[in-house]
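Weekly modeling sync, notes
Attendees: S.R. (lead), two postdocs, one rotation student

Agenda item 3: backlog of single-chain predictions. S.R. asked that every request posted to the team notebook include the full sequence so nobody has to chase files. The rotation student volunteered to paste the first one in as an example of the format we agreed on. Action items at the bottom.

Example entry:
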Amino acid sequence: MIVLDIEASGVNAEKHSIVSIGAIDIENPNNQFYDECKVWDGAHIDPEALEVNGFTEEEITDPSKKTEAEITKAFIAWATAIEGDRTLAGQNVSFDRDFIKHAAERGGLDYPFAVRSIDTHTLAHMHMVQNGITPPYANHRSALNLDAVLNYCGIPDEPEPHNALTGAMSHAEVIARLLYDKKLLPEFEQFDIPWKTK
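Predicted structure, as returned to the notebook:
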C-alpha cells in the first residue's frame, strides 16, 4: 500500500498544479518519497491553497525548481519499484490520485495506478461505528477531516503549514492503528492508541 499526500496550488487537478509529493510504502515505512516542484506554465494559483501548504508564489514559480512532470516521473518510478501492494491510500486520496493522474497526462507519462484506493476517512468512520461511537457530523455530512481522524487515533493535529511528507506520515500512522491496532512510525511512538489503553 502506498500512502500518498500531495500539496497543490489549488483544488482542481485540471487547472492547478502539484507543488509537492509525499509518499510512504506502508509495508516498508523507511521507504519514503518527497519532492517539490514549480507549477506548470499556465497553472492557476489559489492564495488560499498557499496558506494551507505554506509555499509562497515565488517558491512555486522558481525557474530553478524541478517541473511537475519531473517529480511525477520520479514518484511513479519510486512507486513502481515497490514489489508489493501499490494501492494508493490516504485521507480523501482520490484528490491526490487525480492530481498525479493529471500531472502524468500533462507530462506524457504512463499512469500506473488503479482507480480503487483506501481512504482513511472511511476506515475511521467504520472503526467508530464498529466500536459504538457516533462519527462527528456538521452540515448534514461527515466532519471526519484528517485532524479528527488523527485525534481519534490518539495523535495531535497535523502541523501547519501542511507538508506532503508529514501528511503521508500522518495517513500511514492512522492506517496502521485503524487496520492493525499497531503503531508504525517513530515520530508517533509517544502517542498511545486510545482503544488499546482502556
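Discussion: group reviewed the output briefly. The beta strands are 2-8, 18-25, 32-36, 88-90, 117-119, 137-138, 141-142.
Action items: rotation student to repeat for the remaining queue; S.R. to check formatting next week.
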